[in-house]
Amino acid sequence: MSTTPAWAYLSDDGTGEEGTALSRESLAARARQAVLDLIDDDGLGEGDTLPATGALAERFGVSRTVVREALSALAALGIIEIANGRSASVRAQDHSLIRFSLARALRESPGGGFTALMDLRSPLEARAARLAAVSLASEERSADRQGLADLLRKMGEALEDSERYPQLDLRLHGEIARLSGNLALQGVLDAVRTPLFRAMQDLRATRDTRGLVGAEHAEHVRIVEAILAGDARGAEAAMAEHMEAVASLDAPTAPRRTHPHPG
To answer: SUPFAM superfamilies of this UniProt entry (predicted)?
Structure first.
């Protein structure tokens, strides 16, 4: 959480570092950041309303026009919602911006993004496995434990299916992230879902070519068995080993294939 009061972004004399007057665009950009910090500092969530435009203008020491421009920009980004005759309110979280930004960063990374993808997901996946094992240790999570076991069984049955197995693979990692109970971790991993699925498709093609099909499933079995046993350390270690094995394939040399988006 930011420790800088929202008004601090605008509480100067209206000049930049070199003494030139700030443009309205600069003020609006600073007002946007001030509103974001206000939402964060005040712990506002979905449906909570922001102060009225006039109150924000007075709080930030800028005109109503600047505040309206800042709010309009935040509404366009899907962060807030503006309704006629009412104060702006905070919208539900939308991961599309994170998804777009991460996908672009991965795409622009050296090597087509595979190394960057693995650098991002490896520690998060290992942590998710650990948290999932802790979470499922509770007797009340029997349905989740059964669901995870059923998913692993389906993966075993689909092992020879080069199209179906990557879909279930993606689903397994998404389910482990969900079971971790950490919404931030789950959100980041969900944001790279599309490039991750493409990598899984290409990795499967690489395994098919090199005769390595089956090794990944053995790794998945060790991960799930540790989670179901409530072995947090073992689950984390098994996931870390799986991530290292995946990275060592140095993906994807096979042609990109197109499949329906996994369910």
So the answer is: GntR ligand-binding domain-like, Winged helix' DNA-binding domain
